[in-house]
Specification:
The structure holds two protein chains of two kinds.
Chain A lengths: L5 H6 L4 H62 L1
Chain B lengths: L1 H4 L5 H33 L13 H28 L2 H33 L7 H22 L3 H15 L2 H11 L19 H33 L4 H12 L1
Helix pairs in contact in B: 2-8, 3-4, 3-6, 3-8, 4-5, 4-6, 4-8, 5-6, 5-7
Chain lengths: ~80, ~250
């Protein structure tokens, strides 16, 4: 250990402000990068899932509509 | 070797492979980085000239050399993608750019906070600092190009060309302290063969450097996986993963 007390450690031999500024900003930037990377991964998954659900719903509607059309044509023919 | 590499060119295989890699990488990152940072802050000796401000070195130098290393990796990926139309290379280049930008910013900010007490100024337009600032702008340009086009292949091409043109900046940063008179000190660690550092400063540096390098690897893997998903969003395997995620 290079420092005798905790306040010595914080003071960093008079360079405390610069040392803690460097370590603080670096830690903050890295944390923001980590969390934004994880969040955007989740967001991508969510977007793909909702896109797919939308497509499925559309497909179902289209199928229903075409089935209905077939039925009405059949009725008319009869 | 190509035969062995071949399966990793498959997006699905790389997605699962990097997924398995991430827990190991992040565990190693925590171990190395915490040892490195505690050692650097509390146990490494103060410099005989610079006192305790020298502790900034343990972030500044790893961040600066990684900012160049990531750019080099991005350039290799861009080259592979432009020449062989290798789609995963685009995804990896897009994953590296934001990480590189953050580490360039860290190098610049810690450099300023170290320059103020040592040189008496936060910033000076000398060769080393200016070329590193240009590196930051190159990263920002690459990020902007990757997100400027709806078509990811086109975006990758545009960003790749900018990346390759910007490679000229790397030797300029590296040799700026030798080519021009600058306030920035010469290299401490990478003097071939014998670094001019004492051993009790070198070890915490090695731990910090490996810790930051592992951190970079971890974050790039996370971002690489998101890029793979976005670029393959119509593939059945991606849809399956997304659906199981949304059900959870």
């Amino acid at each position: 250990m290079q420092f005798d007390s905790f306040s010595d450690f914080l003071a960093m031999g008079g360079y405390g402000f610069y040392v803690w500024l460097s370590f603080g900003i670096s830690a903050a930037l890295i944390l923001v990068l980590i969390f934004s990377s994880i969040l955007s991964h989740k967001q991508v998954l969510k977007n793909i899932a909702s896109q797919q659900l939308r497509e499925n719903k559309l497909r179902q509607l289209r199928k229903q509509r075409s089935d209905n059309n077939h039925n009405t044509i059949k009725e008319v023919n009869q | 070797m190509w035969k062995w590499l071949h399966p990793y060119a498959n997006p699905e295989v790389s997605y699962h492979f990097t997924g398995k890699l991430i827990p190991w990488l992040s565990a190693l990152t925590v171990i190395f980085l915490s040892i490195g940072m505690v050692w650097a802050l509390a146990f490494a000796p103060a410099d005989y000239q610079q006192g305790d401000s020298f502790r900034i070195f343990y972030i500044h130098v790893p961040a600066a050399s990684l900012s160049m290393g990531i750019y080099f990796g991005m350039a290799i990926a861009a080259f592979t993608s432009l020449v062989w139309q290798f789609k995963l290379a685009d995804a990896s280049a897009a994953a590296m750019a934001p990480v590189g930008a953050v580490f360039t910013a860290i190098a610049l900010i810690t450099g300023a906070a170290w320059g103020k007490p040592m040189w008496g100024t936060w910033w000076i337009w000398d060769a080393r600092l200016t070329s590193e600032l240009i590196l930051l702008f190159l990263y920002l340009g690459v990020i902007a190009l990757h997100s400027a086009f709806e078509d990811k292949a086109l975006a990758g091409k545009a960003a790749g060309i900018l990346t390759l043109v910007g490679v000229i900046n790397l030797p300029i940063i590296k040799y700026s302290v030798e080519w021009w008179n600058t306030l920035h000190q010469g290299s401490t660690v990478s003097k071939l063969g014998k670094p001019s550092m004492s051993v009790d400063m070198l070890w915490p540096f090695i731990f910090s450097f490996l810790g930051f390098a592992l951190l970079v690897g971890t974050i790039i893997c996370i971002r690489f996986r998101s890029e793979i998903l976005t670029r393959n969003s119509i593939r059945p395997w991606v849809k399956a993963i997304a659906l199981t995620y949304s059900i959870k």
